[in-house]
Write a structure and sequence with these properties.
Order of helices and strands: HHHEE
Length: 70
C-alpha cells in the first residue's frame, strides 16, 4: 500500500457519503475482502486479465488490454 493511499480512499468514500464508521466497517469486513479477492481470481482465471486497464466487450469477443495509442 502506498503511503497515504488509505487516507485518499477514506476521503473518496466520504465524498460518496460514507461516514467514517461505515468506511471502517467496510474495509474491515472479512466477507467483503473474500468476495473482492474471489472476483479478482475469477477475472484472472476466466477472462485472463493480466494487466490494467483491461476492458472486455461482449464477453471475450473483443479485448482492449493495457495502454493504447490514439
Amino acid at each position: 500500500t502506498k503511503p497515504g493511499s488509505e487516507n485518499v480512499l477514506k476521503q473518496v468514500a466520504g465524498f460518496a457519503g460514507l461516514a467514517p464508521a461505515q468506511y471502517e466497517a467496510c474495509v474491515s469486513s472479512k466477507p467483503l475482502q473474500d468476495w473482492l479477492l474471489q472476483g479478482r481470481a475469477d477475472a484472472t482465471n476466466i477472462y485472463e486479465i493480466t494487466s490494467t486497464p483491461t476492458f472486455i466487450f461482449r464477453g471475450a469477443l473483443e479485448r482492449v488490454v493495457g495502454a493504447q495509442t490514439y
